[in-house]
Specification:
homodimer, 354 residues, alpha+beta, Beta-Lactamase, Enolase-like, domain 1, 3 domains, 3-stranded antiparallel sheet, DNA-binding
DNA sequence: ATTAGCACTCAAAGAGATAGAGTGCTAACA
DNA sequence: TGTTAGCACTCTATCTCTTTGAGTGCTAAT
């Protein structure tokens, strides 16, 4: 059995129609509504072939056909037309302009809301990975006689802070000079570079004056570890998915929503595809269709993910989750758009102003 | 028709049973399983009376009875027995001990997760209101040549920070002395007190040296406004609710989940009851049953809320949302417990150490 | 190669029929 | 006078049976 142009066109139409209706597509429907100039019987024969080749499936004998995962895969890889965002689509992105001077978390959050509202699927984003961030400054700010704030600023603009108790007998001036020592030792290092050795070095440098603050140093080591490990995940539009008939039973809906609460699992689906994988795409866009996903719950869903960058360094990923019957061209176009906007925004925020 | 002790006991039993089973309760069930020493016929008569009095309802003629909102109200106000937390219940609270040195948001978040896990309903908490917080310190920390961080610390330990661009020609020393001016002027004031007048005063004091930093001052005014307005809301265990047959259709589930996304609406249900209201209770615990709730979507749900304090000042509220058929005694006991734990924790964090 | 025609299949929707849980009422009882 | 046994009645949930209609696969004619 070989794949000719007519078969491709018919498959394309079937998938387009099924994406719209979520109902199995029959030969008569195709023959009538699309003008192939062929009778339903001919279409029927072609459909039987396509099924044999694995691109279509039949829920039961007397139903129409629905695309298989393999069908969707072919569709995504070589059938579908790129979707051009319309003026009206683009105007929906308007809100982005207001983001300008915010913090990075806010931007990411806003982007996830926008993405879910634009696509009507569920959006998932990671906050930037900070392993490779460089420390811009470390500050120890006295709050009152007994406590101070440790503040950590990286070049990615993300800040971490923590309140610590100070040992008795430590005054503001003392804290201030320790703060200077810290800044001097740590500024410019990336988080990856700050090893136990480096901390020990600071400890030695402290020997002379700052024995009292040893506990504070431990705290600092701790929050650096925290930041290093931390990648937050935002999801948005979880309830969107409940609009699709695919999720029209409470059990399935519940499983899905609980899955979204499981940050590790969500982080996993955001992983980019490797070269081995079917979903691999060098544009940074990964599409995983149905059973191409590892997770049980995702077997009937598709996930489209993309990178976002600052300059040429990958900072994090964003994506959407929807039923396998997903409007791939449109969704991919929108993800690309959001990703591009994020790139530009973050670039302005962290590179240009340096 | 008057309410005698026997009627009260029967009503009590019916509600207890209905809370367990979610199935209408028939006279035979009560006569058989609870030992009133009465026949089903007698129970039947009493039930007819209770229905006439408005405490029970019948879904249809040949079904058993279910409690009405009025029935639940009587139950909560004067029928139900206080639930004593068991040792095993209490051991579930164990995780709290780990909270000790965290930030306030973390604590609140943790508390909401714990509350939802313990009750199996949906938990809702507000972060502390900061209107009345006093500013402990304001700091302007230079990050690089072009930008600085504004950091605001209140006595409630909550910190707000924002990165601002600095005008050209401003050096670290300059920023530092401005920072000192700010601290001097603002420390000790509560957020409520910081009016436009106060800001103008600072502006005047700046006249001499700091014209360059006027834009930064505006930013500071802005973030103070932000903090003043800001009460965040955490929800947790939203999917718990899907386990209850009351929410066993996708449409209803969806409405509920969307409701939870609407922060203003959720803030509203957390409002304490006024003296006028049925749900009023001076212990700080408010119970709103079914139609006692203003919100459409809550007409078939109950909400139990409580205050949490630091010292004797109300800081925020916590609560749970569940079906009207809710295990009131147990849930109330658990909310009280969590609230007490929060109080203690926050007290340790903000009062003792001062 | 395409198509008209027809027999066949199967899920979904509708129509009874049945079972069972529960009620209300009446009459008998202590 | 309060309680109970008994019975007719009601109503839902469930099961089975039938009907409907969409869609297929195959065959024979074009």
């Amino acid at each position: 059995m070989d794949m000719n142009e007519r078969k491709r066109k018919i498959l394309h139409s079937i998938i387009d129609e099924y994406i719209k209706s979520a109902e199995p597509i029959g030969s008569r429907h195709i023959a009538k509504n699309l003008d192939f100039g062929l009778s339903s019987a001919t279409i029927r024969n072609e459909m039987a072939d396509l099924e044999e080749m694995g691109y279509l499936e039949q829920p039961h004998t007397s139903a129409g056909r629905i695309p298989s995962d393999k069908g969707y895969r072919l569709y995504v890889d070589s059938l579908m037309n790129d979707y051009e965002l319309t003026v009206s689509d683009l105007s929906d992105f308007g809100g982005v302009l207001e983001w300008k001077m915010g913090q990075i978390d806010k931007i990411i959050k806003r982007a996830s809301v926008l993405l879910s509202e634009l696509t009507h699927y569920t959006a998932v984003l990671t906050t930037p990975e900070m392993r490779r961030g460089a420390i811009k400054t470390v500050e120890l700010v006295p709050v009152d006689s007994a406590s101070a704030l440790i503040i950590l600023v990286t070049n990615e603009g993300v800040m971490k802070h923590k309140r610590v108790l100070l040992p008795a007998g430590v005054d503001g001036e003392f804290v201030h000079s320790f703060s200077n020592l810290l800044r001097e030792k740590l500024s410019g290092s990336t988080l990856e570079e700050i090893s136990a050795a480096k901390i020990s070095e600071i400890r030695r440098a402290m020997q002379a004056h700052f024995e009292l603050l040893f506990p504070v140093l431990d705290f600092i080591a701790e929050i650096i570890d925290d930041v290093r490990a931390e990648t937050e995940i935002f999801t948005s539009g979880a309830t969107n998915i409940l609009n699709y008939p695919e999720f029209n039973d409470v059990h399935r809906a519940k499983e899905f929503l609980e899955f979204l609460d499981n940050k590790e699992a969500v982080a996993e689906i955001l992983q980019p595809a490797t070269g081995q994988e079917a979903g691999f795409s060098d544009g940074g866009i990964t599409v995983r269709i149905g059973k191409e996903n590892k997770q049980d719950i995702m077997q009937k869903s598709s996930v489209i993910t993309a990178n976002y960058y600052v300059g040429d360094q990958v900072m994090g990923r964003l994506g959407i989750i929807g039923p396998t019957r997903m409007d791939y061209p449109k969704t991919i176009a929108k993800i690309k758009q959001i990703s591009a906007m994020l790139n530009r925004l973050l670039y302005d925020l962290y590179i240009e102003e340096e």
